[in-house]
Design goal:
604 residues, mainly beta, Porin, 24-stranded antiparallel barrel, 8 helices, 31 strands, 12% helix, globular
Length: 604
C-alpha cells in the first residue's frame, strides 16, 4: 500500500455510534480470562452492542451477566427492582442519579421502549495500519445501522483483514422489523440465536469462567438477534420470527448459507473459523460448504419459572467428519431456570443425533453480602455443534468433558469485595492409546478495594494445575488514582510463574478528559517473558471498543497515545498511535513495529 493512499484512507475513515465512547474502564476486566484475545473480546461485546437489552423487559439475572464492574452492576440491579419500567433516558437519570459517564456506559447495553418515533443513522468504519518493514493494511471494518423508530432496523458490515486481496472480503446484512406489534419480531438475512447455556446455540452471556458467580451459572433470556458482527462464521442467514405472549414465547428460524471448510476426499475435515482469506489455501476453503438449518422453540415464563424446548436440524453438502461422517445433524434442548428468591437454579439438557448428549445444571444462593454457586457439566465424547458456546475448559475438543464449578463472592463492606472459584475438570477418556485423560483444576481468588473518590485497587491470584504438568501461577494487579475528576493514572501489572520461570508485565497510563472537547491518554508497557509459557497478556487503553491485548513474549517495551476530540456533540475523531520494541531474551537486537488506528464518530 502506498503512503499517499494510507493518508487518504485515514482521512476517509468514518465511524458512527450513538453517545460517547465505551472505555475499558467501565468493564470488569476480572470477568475475562487472562488469555482472551482482542478479537474474542470484540465479538463478545458486539453481542450486546448489536442487540442491547430492553430495560423494561430484561430481568436482574440478565443485568448480572453484563461485563460491567461490580459497583455498576449492583446499582443497576437495584434500579431494576425499584424502577422496572422507564420511559426515557432523562427519566432514568433523574431516578438513578447516575453520573454522565456511567449513564453513557449504560446506554451502550440497554434500550428503552419510548423510542417509538425516532430515526437513527449509524455507520462505522475502523481502519488500522501496521508498519513493520512495509506498510500494509492491518484491518478495515465498516458497520452501519439505520433505525426507523422501533418498527424497522437495517444493519450491515464489511470487513477486510490483513493480507486479504478483496476490498470487502466479508460483507453482511441484517433486517429487523416489528410488522404487527412490539411483541412480534421478524428478522431477515443475518441473525443469531441465544439459547440456554449454549449447548446447541450461542449462550446469551459469558461462555468462559469469570469472577461473576451468577454470570457463570445463570444463563440469560433466550432470544433471536440481528447480526452485524465481525465473526464471519458463527451466525445464521435466512429468516426468523419470535412472538411473545403473556406467558409463552415462540422462536422459529430458517437458515441457508455457505461456510469456510477444509474438504478432502469429499469429506469436511474441519470448519475454518478465522474468517481470513489471504493465502491460496484460505481462499480455496472460502464458501465451500453449504449448510441449511431449521430450528424452532417454545418458552414458558412466569414470575419464578422459565422453561423451554428447542429442536433443530442442519444439513450439509458434504459429510462432516466430526459429525460421524454424516450429511445431517439434528438435536433438541430442554432448558429451565427457577427463581425462588435467594435461591436460583438454571440448567440445560441437550441431545444430538440420538447418540450424543450434554448436561449442565447449577444453582446460585445470593444474599445481601454473599453469593455462592455450584454447577455440574457433562459433555459426551463427540458432542459438538458449530454454533455452541458453552462454558468448557477444553473448548477446542468438542465434547469429551466433565467438571464441577464452585464459586463465591463476598461483599465485606461498602468498599471491599472478595471472591473466587474452584473448577475441577477432566476428559471422559483419551482418544490416544496409552495416554491418560487430561485432568486439572483452576483456583482463583480476588480482592477489590474502592475509595469514596472512586480510586480503586484490585488483586487477582490464579493457580492452574494439570495432571502431569507443573502448576502455573498468575498474579494480577490493577489500580486507578484520580488526581482530579478528569485526571487519572491507571496501573496494570501481571506476574506469571511456572517451573521457577517468571514473566512480568506492567502498564502505566495517564488520562486527561474534557480538555475543552478533547480526551488524551498516554502510557507505556514494559514486559519480560523468558519462555513461552510465561507470556504476558495486558489490557491497554485504545479507541472505542478496541483494546490491545497482544501476547507479549520476550522482553521489550511499548508506548501508546490515544487522542479523542468531539465536535458539537455530533462528531468524535479518535487517533491511536502505538509502537513496540521486542526481542527474545537470547537475542540482542530489537524488532520494532508501529500501529496506527483511526476512526471518527458521527451521530446523525
Amino acid at each position: 500500500m502506498k503512503t499517499s493512499f494510507l493518508g487518504i484512507l485515514l482521512l476517509c475513515s468514518l465511524m458512527v455510534l450513538s453517545g460517547d465512547v465505551l472505555s475499558v474502564d467501565a468493564l470488569n476486566i476480572s470477568l475475562f480470562p487472562e488469555d482472551i484475545s482482542e478479537e474474542d473480546l470484540e465479538i463478545y461485546l458486539e453481542a450486546y452492542l448489536n442487540n442491547p437489552l430492553n430495560w423494561n423487559r430484561c430481568s436482574p439475572a440478565d443485568i448480572e451477566a453484563l461485563p460491567l464492574n461490580d459497583d455498576l452492576i449492583e446499582q443497576l440491579t437495584g434500579f431494576k427492582y425499584r424502577y422496572p419500567q422507564v420511559e426515557s433516558w432523562k427519566e432514568f437519570q433523574s431516578k438513578t442519579k447516575l453520573e454522565k459517564q456511567e449513564l453513557n456506559v449504560v446506554q451502550f447495553f440497554f434500550i428503552l421502549e419510548s423510542k417509538q418515533h425516532e430515526s437513527d443513522i449509524q455507520f462505522m468504519n475502523y481502519t488500522s495500519v501496521n508498519k513493520n518493514n512495509t506498510v500494509d493494511l492491518h484491518k478495515s471494518l465498516t458497520r452501519g445501522k439505520v433505525e426507523f423508530g422501533r418498527r424497522l432496523a437495517i444493519g450491515f458490515i464489511t470487513e477486510r483483514d490483513q493480507g486479504e486481496r478483496t476490498l470487502w472480503d466479508y460483507r453482511n446484512l441484517s433486517v429487523t422489523t416489528r410488522p404487527f406489534s412490539g411483541q412480534c419480531v421478524l428478522g431477515l438475512s443475518s441473525f443469531k440465536l441465544d439459547w440456554g447455556h449454549g449447548l446447541l446455540f450461542a449462550r446469551s452471556n459469558m461462555a468462559f469462567k469469570g469472577s461473576s458467580v451468577a454470570g457463570n451459572i445463570l444463563a440469560g433470556t433466550p432470544r433471536f438477534g440481528a447480526y452485524s458482527g465481525s465473526d464471519e462464521n458463527r451466525y445464521l442467514q435466512g429468516a426468523y420470527v419470535s412472538q411473545q405472549w403473556k406467558h409463552l414465547a415462540l422462536y422459529s428460524g430458517v437458515s441457508s448459507r455457505r461456510l469456510d471448510a477444509t474438504i478432502q476426499d469429499s469429506t469436511v475435515q474441519s470448519f475454518r473459523e478465522t474468517g481470513i482469506h489471504g493465502t491460496d489455501s484460505e481462499i480455496a476453503a472460502k464458501d465451500t460448504l453449504a449448510e441449511n438449518t431449521l430450528c424452532g422453540g417454545l418458552v414458558y415464563t412466569d414470575s419464578r419459572f422459565l422453561g423451554g424446548i428447542l429442536v433443530f436440524q442442519s444439513r450439509y453438502s458434504f459429510p462432516v467428519r466430526d459429525y460421524f461422517n454424516q450429511y445431517r445433524q439434528s438435536g433438541f434442548s430442554i432448558y429451565q431456570k427457577i427463581d425462588l428468591g435467594d435461591w436460583r437454579f438454571s440448567g440445560e439438557v441437550a441431545a444430538l443425533n440420538s447418540e450424543e448428549y450434554a448436561v449442565v445444571q447449577g444453582f446460585v444462593f445470593q444474599s445481601n453480602q454473599y453469593t455462592l454457586g455450584i454447577q455440574y457439566r457433562y459433555f459426551s465424547d463427540y458432542f459438538s455443534t458449530r454454533l455452541s458456546s458453552a462454558m468448557k475448559e477444553f473448548s477446542g475438543s468438542g465434547g469429551n468433558e466433565r467438571g464441577v464449578y464452585l464459586g463465591m463472592q463476598c461483599k465485606i463492606n461498602q468498599r471491599n469485595r472478595a471472591g473466587g472459584y474452584l473448577d475441577f475438570y477432566s476428559e471422559n477418556r483419551s482418544f490416544e492409546k496409552g495416554v491418560e485423560p487430561l485432568r486439572g483444576s483452576d483456583a482463583v481468588i480476588y480482592l477489590d478495594h474502592r475509595w469514596p473518590a472512586k480510586h480503586f485497587i484490585n488483586f487477582r491470584l490464579k493457580r492452574k494445575l494439570s495432571i502431569g504438568s507443573s502448576a502455573k501461577y498468575q498474579t494480577t494487579v490493577s489500580a486507578r488514582y484520580y488526581f482530579q475528576k478528569n485526571v487519572s493514572m491507571s496501573f496494570r501489572g501481571i506476574v506469571n510463574e511456572i517451573n521457577h520461570d517468571r514473566g512480568i508485565g506492567t502498564s502505566l497510563s495517564l488520562s486527561v478528559s474534557e480538555i475543552k472537547t478533547m480526551d488524551l491518554t498516554v502510557g507505556t508497557t514494559q514486559f519480560y517473558s523468558p519462555v513461552y509459557d510465561t507470556r504476558i497478556y495486558l489490557y491497554e487503553p485504545g479507541i472505542p471498543l478496541r483494546f490491545n491485548m497482544v501476547s507479549l513474549y520476550g522482553t521489550g517495551y511499548r508506548y501508546f497515545i490515544i487522542i479523542q476530540n468531539r465536535f458539537r456533540n455530533k462528531l468524535t475523531a479518535a487517533l491511536s498511535l502505538k509502537t513496540q520494541a521486542r526481542r527474545l531474551v537470547t537475542e540482542s537486537e530489537f524488532m520494532k513495529t508501529f500501529l496506527v488506528e483511526f476512526q471518527m464518530v458521527v451521530d446523525l
